[in-house]
Amino acid sequence: MKKLLALVLSLSMLLSVCSFASADSLAGEYDIKIWVANEIVDLTKQQVEDFNNTNELGIKFNATIEAVGEGDAATQMVTDVEAGGDIFCFAQDQFSRLTEAGALAKLGAGAAKNVTESTDADAVAAVTTGDGTLWAYPLTADNGYFMYYDKSVIPEEDIDSMEKLIADCEAAGKNFAFEMNTSAWYLASFFFGTGCVSEWQTDDEGNFTSVHDTFNSDKGLIAAKGMQKLVTSPIHVSSSEASALANGAAIVVTGTWASSAIKEMLGDNMGVADLPSFEVDGQEYHLGSFFGFKLMGVKPQVDPAKAAVLHRLAQYLTGAKCSLERHAAVGWGPANLEAQADESVANDPILKAVYEQKKYGQVQNAIHGSWWDIAKVIGDEVKAATDEAGLKQALQNYEDKMASLFKLDANALLFVGAWNGWNNADDTDTYYLKDGVLTLDVPESDYMGGRIVKPGDWGTDKGFAQVVSGAEYIKDLGADNPDNNIVFAEAGNYTITLNGSEITIVKN
Description:
- The structure is a single chain.
- With about 500 residues, the chain is of the alpha/beta class.
- Helix content is about 35%, strand content about 25%.
- It has 3 domains: about 1-140 and about 295-350, D-Maltodextrin-Binding Protein, domain 2, CATH 3.40.190.10; about 145-290 and about 365-405, 3-Layer(aba) Sandwich (D-Maltodextrin-Binding Protein, domain 2); about 415-505, Immunoglobulin-like (Sandwich).
- It has 18 helices and 23 strands.
- Strand 12 and strand 13 form a beta hairpin.
- It is flat.
């Protein structure tokens, strides 16, 4: 019902926005509600008042500014779009949820052009859907993590080496705080550092359909070996809190939100840097990280005049002037390019560390909610492992849990292909797996390809990539097989077995 209401709001706005004759028709008073993080509530009130006093169109906002954090705004908006903020800030990974829920009004041509030309390119990509439509305004480009350290303990020449940092902490009896045992967000840094990926796919409704994840791989094993060096050291503390520095740590990995507290604790001894590298078998790997943006959305409106002025205000609040004011007040890193180039931002040592680490970061897109609990136990299991086999088992445990998210009912699957015209809604028993097994006559033809699917659904299909036994009976077409089809080398009678997410093929 809430999505339907949002759709009605969107259509109403779209149909009526064309009625404007000129910008003069925007003059007037507007009662609006804005959701921002608690630390910028007062600043945002002042910025809205500044807009009221400086705009030349006679626009005046009577704004109610409410403290709703970027992590909570999306959930509240998709639950009740009508009751949500007219303007609201949210974390980038919530973008898909909000667009699917109809909680975001798309930007007009002028606003989209302004954002594209004035904003960090990665941030622009974060608010753009596949058809090129922009749906939000980038607010910050600093949502990641990096390293704070105590310069009285850690020599500057050691900050690029995790092994040297561990040795420095051990020698000084100080801790190294890095949230490895309680947070997937932080421990992913080791896997990203070796080139692993975890990329999630969704359907048009925003439902997760599959994931391409390489944590359980040779690269993942290297990451686990590097992680084990840290988590088994007696100086490691699983924390990302600034308070770790007051409780015996010389290093803490966290983000810009901790900068004020850490400055107060360390004073002139505060050092900041991108994350270090770790070494495995003589090769160095720079730690990666998640990286994202804070965004500002405008809710769809029935009144086209109100819709137009809200977009003007959103552009103002995310522009250079307001971005620099937020940086001065709370240290947030702007997404606006003019603000990024300003001397106060360019010379900010904390933001220098943010942008340096961004080079090694993975943009945080939509992630299945269960992943955070599945992945966070890797740290504990890596710490408990006593040999390489134990590390491999930790990664296998992770993969098994990931596979269960998309486990298919082996009694409700079809093996379809060229032989039945790719009819994945077949209503006969010919191509159905029974208890995960199908015996199939593959006829002679120019293309003997097929794959396992749910009836009527290509979203969770299994194919060539899942074949673990019987590869000698199929062709490896490499890049010429983008659809992941199982292509038989010759006609014949085959038994195809699906066990979990693994396919076995035997020629009878």
